[in-house]
């Protein structure tokens, strides 16, 4: 989603600004722009499409400056266009904005804004208009922001340039902002990845904070414009995250990184020799709870679905799961003996964050399973279980998903451990995931061949039972996300309740079929498909292949798994199929249309 970068320094910082925008590219965007102050005048450039288009425009117009704000826009109000892209420049101010202003129409009326002054369809331009008026009224940029923020309903992070000053003014509510301190510059970004590499320290702004960034100083104020101190953290640049190496796409790199990312995550929490799980120390006693509520969106929600199967089978807890955008508004009862768990790669997903706040209001303990440490979700939760997947750049989540599953697996084993009875078979098997995944990745040609057979089909189905049901959903999500093909995931037993009507000659149905207790039932389901002309592509182990061979059009054999490891290991084939199919079709794998990496709007 939208991204903000701003730098105030001694030297021309256009190069660092553009590099910051490239670093935020992974979040998804459709246009970009920047503005700077030169000789007390604004200069700017905007373009639609890739950041390279903006870069060309900036070079052509020979823009250079040392007080610059920039933006990548992911359209919410108004289509992607130059007029709708940021910064918005008014008489005395320039603005870039992330988030959504819910009451912008009321604000237009209340502040008698002449609609002729609004050149875009965005909510953001209304803010630039009002801030410009407030600047004239207060003649003090901080007081003007304080007043502005009081008028706004919705979420925002703002960065303003103000004529007559040598500062960037920022503020945030519900949308993150991080400040970067350097030797001869200071900076701001919506994501630490957007800060210059030679940043020394960072400050995470808190809700309703306002800040003034100058070349050599940073001042932070609370919502009442009272000066406050915020903790400084050492900045560790994420070296290598921008490099694809020998891979064609970040998604490919991230898929192939999984033997390492899964192992890193598992070894962080488990000691193989001592057969012990070591979660970071916490006051949370799992025995104190009778319920666990797991909340997330998209792929992260699928990891919660898997966790529900594990927790129900392996602990005595009642488990409820929900999609964050629904749970937020549900009037569900939350008992005092509940533990709230939210799962998020980015740690910034707005709906998930709001559910975490709902848990906090109900005063139940909270755990977040997040990949981006110091994200809004990780900072708000009582306790963090990090997934050590490393930065995930591809919009389609791959390694973050398998790391979420790995953490959740250890979380379940930890509960068993507290209850005095850890499942040794499952515990030992998690250390073998690495080898199984390497074997799958070595045979990646199998998935290329399957993907090629899918290139001309209009619809594709994924089916599975038990813990393979969430993986079927994940397979379908991955495939539609990056190939734009219609693809549905179903619990295999559900086919006859409707979806079977869609099966006709040669419609591919990909069956996730570890040879487990559900296997025979699954065989019946595939015969229902076969009888209607569907094309069966089965992913199974050797035992499964023996039994199912005669019913299948294609079989891919992968290593034997169990109830605990199969969701992690079967995630690899579904990712590879989606990836290779996208390659055949020629879609933009890392930045699929209409999607964003970090969904910070509701
Ligand atoms: O950052 P989060 O894990 O909270 O993101 C949740 C979803 O937006 C995300 O998983 C999305 O579904 C992915 N693009 C799927 O590949």
Write the layout of secondary structure elements.
Blueprint: E1 3-9, H1 14-24, E2 31-38, E3 41-48, H2 51-60, E4 67-73, E5 88-89, E6 93-101, H3 104-110, H4 124-138, H5 141-151, E7 154-162, E8 168-173, E9 178-181, E10 185-189, E11 201-204, E12 210-213, E13 218-221, E14 227-228, E15 233-234, H6 250-256, H7 258-269, E16 270-271, E17 276-277, E18 291-296, H8 298-314, E19 318-323, H9 324-327, E20 338-344, H10 350-361, E21 366-370, H11 376-380, E22 383-386, H12 399-418, H13 424-429, H14 433-442, H15 444-454, E23 459-464, H16 468-483, E24 486-491, E25 508-513, H17 519-531, E26 535-540, H18 542-548, E27 554-557, H19 566-569, H20 571-585
Parallel strand pairs: 18-19, 18-20, 20-21, 21-22, 23-24, 23-25, 25-26, 26-27
Antiparallel strand pairs: 1-4, 1-10, 2-3, 2-4, 5-6, 6-7, 7-8, 8-12, 9-10, 9-11, 11-15, 12-13, 13-14, 16-17
Helix pairs in contact: 4-5, 7-12, 7-14, 8-12, 8-16, 15-20, 16-20
